[in-house]
Every structure is written in C-alpha cells, then in structure tokens.
Amino acid sequence: MAEISSNVSIGLHFAESIIYVFSFIFVLVSMSAFLKSRKKEFGLMVMLGMTNQQLRRMVFLENVIIGFFATVSGIAVGVVFAKLILMAAENILGLEEALPFYLPWQAAVLTFSAFLILFIVISFFTVSILKGNKLIDLIKGSSTPKKEPKASIVLSILAALLLGVGYAIALLVRDVLVIAAMIPVTIIVIIGTYFLFTQLSVFTINRLKKRKNIFWKKTNLVLLSDLAYRMKDNARAFFFVAIVSTVAFSAIGSLVGFRYIFTTNLVEERPFAFEYVSWEGNQQEAEHIQEIEKELAPMNYQEAGITIKHVSAGSPEGEHFERAIVSQSEYNHLAKVAGQLDKQVTLQDNEAILLYFKNALGEMPNLMEQTNHQLGKHAIQQIAVQPMNLIRTFEDYLVVSDDLYKDMQANSTEAYYAFFLKDWKDTITIGENLLKKLKVDQSHGEDPDGHFKISSLAYDWNQMNQGFGAVLFIGLFIGAVFFVAAGSFLYFRLYADIEDEKRKFSAISKLGLTDKELSKIVTVQLALLFFVPILVAIIHGAVALTALQHMFHFNLFKSSSAVLGSFAAIQLVYFLFIRFQYIRKIKEEI
C-alpha cells in the first residue's frame, strides 16, 4: 500500500493532539461526575475512621486502576474490530486499494503510555476536588439546597444579538470576504453560544414558569420546576458540547463538500471519456488512435477528431503572433458527439467566432464580442464570443468557415481526438491500461518527450476519489470520535444528577404520578437537555457550510444535509438508549 502523504500525516498528528486534549477534558468531567455521586459514600467512610489522606489515596488508586484496565480493554477492542472498520471504510468510501490488517504495536504502546499518563494526571486533579470538603458536605452529597437560578436580561439579549449578527455576516458575505469574516464571526458566535446556555436558556425557562397557562398545565409543573437548575448547572458542559460538535460538523461537512465540488467539477468540465492530443512531429499518432479504438471496441462509443492550425496573425499596432483556428464542420461534429448541439455555429464568408476556454470558476475573461482579425492575407470579422470546454488544449480558438480554414497556411498543427461514452465510469481499467501501454506519466498523462498527451475521465475521477477517500476516512473517524464523546459527555452530566432525580420522582410518585407521566416528563426533560446543544451545533454547522458554499459558488446542500442528517440520526439512536437506561434506573428506585 502506498505511503500516506506528508500533508495527511501532519493532519493525523494534529488530529491525535485534538483527540488527546478532548479525551483529557472528557475523562476529567466524567470522573468528577462519578465522584460527585459518591460523596455520601465517602462521608460514611470518614465517619468510620478513614483519614482524608487515606480517602484521597483510595480514590487515586481507583482512578489509576480503572484507567489501566480501560486503556488495555480499549486497545484490545480496537485491535479486534480494526479490520471490520477498515473493510467498512473501503466499501463506504469506494477505496480501490485495500486497507490491510496489521498489529500496530508501536501505536498500541503509544496509546497505552499516553492514556495511562492521562489517567494518572486526571487522578491528581480529581483527588484535589476532595480537598477542603467538610464531613457535613460529604454526608449531604448533592442534597444541599441550591439558590434560585437567575439570568441577566441584558446578557440574554446580548446572546440573541451576537448569534443574530454572527449568522447574518456569515450568510451575507461572498467570495474572499468569507475568509476575512471567518475569525470575527467565529468569536462572536462562540461568545453568543456561551451566553445562550448560561443566560438566555435560564431566562426563557424562568419566563415560561411565570406563564400560569403553561406552568400549571398537566405535568409541566414537574418538568419546568428544576429545568432551570439543571440548565444552569450544565451550561458550561452544553456550551463545550455545542462548540465541539460544531467543529466536527463543519470539518466533516467541508471534507465531503470539497470532494463533491472537485469530482462534480471534473465531470462537468470534461464531456469526453477519453482525449488524445497529438503535437506536430508525433510519429505514433495513428498507432495510438488504433490502440484506443481497440480498447474501446467492446464499448458503445463515438469518436470525433479536430485539427487545430496555428496561423500568423497581426494587430493594428503591427504586433505579430499566432492564432489557433479550427474549421466549422469539425467543431460542429465535436459538439454533436458531446451532445452540446447548442454550441454548434453557423458562419458565412470571413466570419469567425472566438471560443475561450471556460475555467473551473466559470469566470469570463475581458474579451470584445465583435472585432477584426488579420490572419495571414485574410481579414476576419469576429461576430461573437462563446465559452467552450470541448477542445481541452487550454487555449482560445477562432472557428472559421471550412473554405477559409482550407485556404489558410499553418505554421504548425496539432490534432485533438475525443471519445464519448455514456457509461464512462466503467472505463477505469481501460484508462489505466492505456496510460501504461502508451508509457505516459499517469499523474497528467503526458508523453515524457512532449509529443502527445492522453487523458481518461474515469481514471482521473477514480484517482481523485481515492485521494479524497483516505482523507475523508480520517475526517469521518475523528468526527465520529468527537460526536460519540460529546454524546457520552452529555450522558455523564445527566448521570451526575440521577440520585436527585430518583428522590424527586420517588416522592412525587406517592402523590399519584403514573409510570406514563413519569416517562413523559423524563423523556421531554432529557430530550431538551440532550438535543439543545446538538441542535445549536447543527444550526452553527449549517451556517458555516452555507458560508463555504457562498465562497465556492457551489451548492453543498445535498452533501451537507447527508452529513448533518447522518450524525443527527446516530445521536437520536444514542438518546433512545440513554433514555431507556435512565428511566429504568429511576423506576427501580420507585
């Protein structure tokens, strides 16, 4: 298998660093949540004679042991499922080259060492959390009364304004201004998102609680009574999840979008499955064309050829240069074979049409529609300018009448052959075979001696997909890690409050709360706490991808929707699993 390019390698190392930092934050928060839920247990141990030093030593050793077995089991599971993941990547991304299984002992040693150090460092952090806790605080655990959460109306309005301004700028700017606006918009949106969770969400809930027709309706009293507390307590966690998920959405959406842009542009710019350009002095032209026709014989194809003349031209200022000209009949036949009948031309006498090569951005050069040309002894009247991608020798041409074309003396000529196939994607192997037989550089299909050039649309399209496939696989994998970790992050934050929830619903059930009502309250509450950060991230990501679309003038809705929709569906399944486990634990207590 070919080695990964240096750019991809740098990207992988950068991704390693991001995942490691994210893992540090994730594990630290998770362990802190577990410690919070065990405060009463620690309080009882202290009452029975355990010293603070012994308690901290016990917690430290527990964390290190958990980290050791978690790292070992994680590496083992990763090795077991590695080939399955690689096979899935081959099929999903359409990779031609196999991703072989091997035992990455160096990666395993690095992972084990790095994560063991991570757990040891985090153990010191979590042990420090226990310092300063009095016995009464440990006994009370999380049952200590909380203050009524309050929100600033000014900061709430500021949150809405910052998000509104950030979205407006991102959606309104075009072209290179998108890059210029990227950093300020990102800062504005991040600040707005922080105030959204810490202020605006609490402010909104408090306003709903004051609306008696909403607050006193059915089970809304139970639902909204402590929702503001939980939103305030978890605001920073929700902010973190929203930003991380936005980064994952935007990165993966960009990778998928770029792949779609480049592959689509490639197909749109090249109407022919195979192209062959022969420059003057090429003695193998006829032999090569026969070889191409032989390879394509089993296929249903159409062929067209055109001879380009380079003739002497002059300008009113006395400048002398060369113009490329083609005949009307050959050009019209080429357009017919390509299925572009609207590109055919009709000329009379000394009329001509200038064909300019349309670049990938579709930009039109500054050309005069009507002008005169002096080609040798002939005065030519240009009547129109027309974009064109049929003759892919990357220069501009004058189409002239057949009689005029025959009468013009050429300084040099080149031949262009085009082969049209409707099912061009089935010719990847044919393209590869031709490149090998004609002994050209497979990266650009040009003869080392500069006599000819051949290109295969299917081969180039496949190579582009292969190149993007490896990068896309890395991006999808990293994005999936971020996304699953973000969901788990939310779960652990919710798990930290489960003891309070058990006591609350146990007491309310004695007042007549049914299982159906309990499930409804918990489901709505979990859905709000779970999906609000994800929904914010999806909106952020959609705006970011729309701005990217404005910069490249390409519709990324389809590819972006596929990315955002896939991750939203995965998160929904994850939520249903968490909801089932959460409700089951609460009902067990009741």
Q: Can you tag this structure with a few keywords?
A:
19 helices; 590 residues; 6-stranded mixed β-barrel
Fold and architecture overview:
The chain is of the alpha+beta class. Helix content is 65%, strand content 12%. The protein has helices at 6-37, 39-47, 52-93, 105-130, 135-140, 153-172, 177-210, 212-215, 220-225, 227-233, 235-269, 285-296, 328-337, 402-407, 428-437, 457-495, 498-509, 515-552, 557-589; strands at 274-279, 301-314, 320-327, 351-357, 371-375, 378-388, 397-400, 412-421, 452-456. Strands 2-3-7-4-6-5 form a 6-stranded mixed beta barrel. The radius of gyration is 34 Å and the shape is elongated. The model has no long low-confidence stretch (mean pLDDT 78).
Topology overview:
Blueprint: H1 6-37, H2 39-47, H3 52-93, H4 105-130, H5 135-140, H6 153-172, H7 177-210, H8 212-215, H9 220-225, H10 227-233, H11 235-269, E1 274-279, H12 285-296, E2 301-314, E3 320-327, H13 328-337, E4 351-357, E5 371-375, E6 378-388, E7 397-400, H14 402-407, E8 412-421, H15 428-437, E9 452-456, H16 457-495, H17 498-509, H18 515-552, H19 557-589
Parallel strand pairs: 3-7, 4-6
Antiparallel strand pairs: 1-8, 1-9, 2-3, 2-5, 2-8, 4-7, 5-6
Helix pairs in contact: 1-4, 1-16, 3-4, 6-7, 6-18, 7-10, 7-11, 7-18, 11-16, 11-18, 11-19, 15-16, 16-19, 17-19, 18-19
Number of helices: 19
Order of helices and strands: HHHHHHHHHHHEHEEHEEEEHEHEHHHH
Using only C-alpha atoms, the radius of gyration works out to: 34 Å
Helix content: 55-70%
Globular, elongated, flat, extended or rod-shaped: what is the shape? elongated
Strand arrangement, major sheet:
2-3-7-4-6-5
What is the mean predicted local confidence, pLDDT?
A: 78
DSSP summary, beta strand count: 9
Query: Low-confidence runs (pLDDT<50, min 5 residues)?
Result: none
Structural class: alpha+beta
Q: Tell me the distance between the termini.
A: 58 Å
User: Which strand-content bin applies to the residues?
Assistant: 5-15%
The major beta sheet can be summarized as: 6 strands, mixed, barrel
